[in-house]
Amino acid sequence: MSEDGSSQRTRPNVLITGTPGTGKTSLAVIIAERTGMKHINVGELIKEHSCHDGRDEELSTNILDEDKLLDAMEVIIEEAAQEGQGIVADFHVCEIFPERWFDVVLCLRTSTDILFDRLTARGYNEKKRSSNMEAEIMQVVLEESRESYAPEIVHECPSNTIEDMESNVTRIEQWTKHWIKDRT
What we know:
Layout: E1 14-18, H1 24-35, E2 38-41, H2 42-48, E3 52-56, E4 61-64, H3 66-82, E5 87-90, E6 104-109, H4 112-121, H5 126-137, H6 140-148, E7 154-158, H7 162-182
Parallel strand pairs: 1-5, 1-6, 2-5, 6-7
Antiparallel strand pairs: 3-4
Helix pairs in contact: 1-7, 4-5
């Protein structure tokens, strides 16, 4: 892959990030289907490749082994590029990924009343739910996105309703077409 990670690629790479419960995976699945991109559910990839180093019982979550995750993802991203396929990855952490991997970053935002209900439906314990609610209120993931990537590629997107999701899908479909057209 080239130094900036994009010159050999013929399809773009998209990162969808946001607080847990904002709809990242649902959006990524639809975008992948409609654009022909390869979907990488980073949370599932972590489980499949055992990219964790112990467990945080208080938050009921595994402790991420970033190096192992990045090694696994790099292989997938390179294979997709060689096959002429872009990727759409979704994860609640964004600052660990090399900037060169992604051409656009969507940070999903959800109103706290809706997010509370989604996290409760997932069975999050009180501490984990409160921690994620606080992260959304404080715009933690959005700020991390803005600090980790060029400002022009980071987009804050509402994710409260089906209409919001459809709008976000349409936006990325159009953006993808322009990205490809600009490079051919």
